[in-house]
From TrEMBL:
Keyword annotations of the record: Glycolysis, Lyase, Metal-binding, Zinc
A GO MF label: zinc ion binding
Residues reported to bind Zn(2+) 2: 105, 135
Protein name: Fructose-bisphosphate aldolase
Reaction it catalyzes: beta-D-fructose 1,6-bisphosphate = D-glyceraldehyde 3-phosphate + dihydroxyacetone phosphate
Protein EC: 4.1.2.13
Classification via SUPFAM superfamilies: Aldolase
Any one GO biological process: glycolytic process
Family the entry assigns: Belongs to the class II fructose-bisphosphate aldolase family.
Species this protein is from: Amniculicola lignicola CBS 123094
Pathway: Carbohydrate degradation; glycolysis; D-glyceraldehyde 3-phosphate and glycerone phosphate from D-glucose: step 4/4
Function: Catalyzes the aldol condensation of dihydroxyacetone phosphate (DHAP or glycerone-phosphate) with glyceraldehyde 3-phosphate (G3P) to form fructose 1,6-bisphosphate (FBP) in gluconeogenesis and the reverse reaction in glycolysis.
Length: 284
C-alpha cells in the first residue's frame, strides 16, 4: 500500500521525520470528538481520532461524524479503529466505514494464530487502502472498550516478535515494554525504555511504533517515550479524566447545554496541553 495515500501514515511519516509525537485520542461521543478537533485546530497540530469497536456498536453514527471532521478539518486528522478483536467485525468495518487505519488486535490468540490472522486481515485492509496496527507481545490490563487481559501473563516484545509482525505486513507496531492498559499501580509506570529504543533501532523506519497504556503518564515519561521511538501515542484517560471529573462534579448543578460546553472546553484545553508536550503543536 502506498503510504502517501493513507492519512494515518501521512501523519506518522511527518512525525517520524520531525521527531515529535502525535496523540491518538479516544472519543466516546460527539462532544469529545468536537473538543479533540477544536484542540487540533487551535494548536495547528495533527491528530489521530480513535474509536473502539464497542463504541461503533453503541453509537453507529459516530464514525461518520468523525469522518466528516477529518474531511472538513484544516489540519491533518485521521480516523483509526482501536483494538478491533473480532474478525467478522473488522471485515464489516473495513467494508462499510470510512476509516484510515485499524488496529487488528489478535493478541488474545497464541503467537502462531495471532500472526496468521493478522497477516490475512492486513492483506484485506491494504486492498482497501486501510493501514494496519498490531500488538506484539501482550500488554496486560484492560480499559473501557478493550477485553481485560489482567489474568494473562505479560509478554515483552522480542526481536523475533518484531520481525514476525513486520513480515505480516503491518504498518504500525504496538510493543509491550511494561506498559499496561488501564491504570498503573500506585508506584506508577515502570517502562523498559532500553527495550523500546532497541525495537526502534531494529525497526529502522520499516514500520511506525505506537505506545499503548499512557494512563498516569507524566509529561517527562511521554516525552522520553517519544525520544525512544514511539510516535503514535494512544491516549484515553490521560486526556479524558478532566472531562470525567467535570461530569461527576457538575452534572447535578449545571444545565445540560452548559455542562456540554464546559466539558468540551475542558477537554480542548487538556488536549492542547498534551499536544504541546508531544511537540506536535504548530506542525500542521
Amino acid at each position: 500500500m502506498a503510504p502517501t495515500k493513507n492519512r494515518t501514515l501521512q501523519i506518522l511519516n511527518a512525525a517520524a521525520a520531525g521527531k515529535y509525537g502525535v496523540l491518538a485520542a479516544i472519543a466516546y461521543n460527539v462532544e469529545q470528538l468536537t473538543g479533540l478537533v477544536r484542540a487540533a485546530e487551535s494548536r495547528r497540530s495533527p491528530l489521530i481520532i480513535q474509536l473502539f469497536p464497542s463504541t461503533l456498536k453503541q453509537l453507529p453514527t459516530l464514525a461518520y461524524a468523525a469522518a466528516q471532521a477529518v474531511k472538513s478539518a484544516t489540519v491533518p486528522i485521521s480516523l483509526h479503529i482501536d483494538h478491533a478483536q473480532d474478525e467478522d467485525h473488522i471485515r464489516e468495518i473495513m467494508k462499510t466505514l470510512p476509516v484510515d487505519s485499524i488496529m487488528v488486535d489478535m493478541s488474545h490468540y497464541d503467537e502462531k494464530e495471532n500472526l496468521e490472522k493478522t497477516r490475512v486481515l492486513a492483506k484485506e485492509c491494504h486492498e482497501r487502502g486501510i493501514a494496519v496496527e498490531a500488538e506484539s507481545g501482550r500488554i496486560n490490563g484492560g480499559e473501557e472498550g478493550i477485553a481485560d487481559t489482567g489474568d494473562l501473563e505479560a509478554l515483552f516484545t522480542t526481536e523475533e516478535d518484531v520481525e514476525s509482525f513486520i513480515s505480516a505486513s503491518i504498518d504500525i507496531l504496538a510493543p509491550s515494554i511494561g506498559n499496561l492498559h488501564g491504570d498503573y499501580p500506585p508506584s506508577g509506570p515502570s517502562l523498559h525504555y532500553d527495550r523500546l529504543e532497541s525495537i526502534n533501532a531494529q525497526v529502522n523506519n520499516r514500520v511506525h511504533i505506537a505506545l499503548h497504556g499512557t494512563n498516569d503518564f507524566s509529561e517527562e515519561t511521554l516525552q522520553r517515550c517519544i525520544r525512544s521511538g514511539a510516535i503514535k501515542l494512544n491516549v484515553n484517560k490521560l486526556l479524558l479524566e478532566p472531562w470525567n471529573v467535570l461530569m461527576r462534579e457538575k452534572s447535578g448543578e449545571l444545565p445540560l447545554v452548559r455542562l456540554i460546553d464546559e466539558g468540551m472546553d475542558v477537554l480542548q484545553k487538556e488536549t492542547e496541553k498534551w499536544m504541546d508536550v508531544c511537540g506536535s503543536s504548530g506542525k500542521a
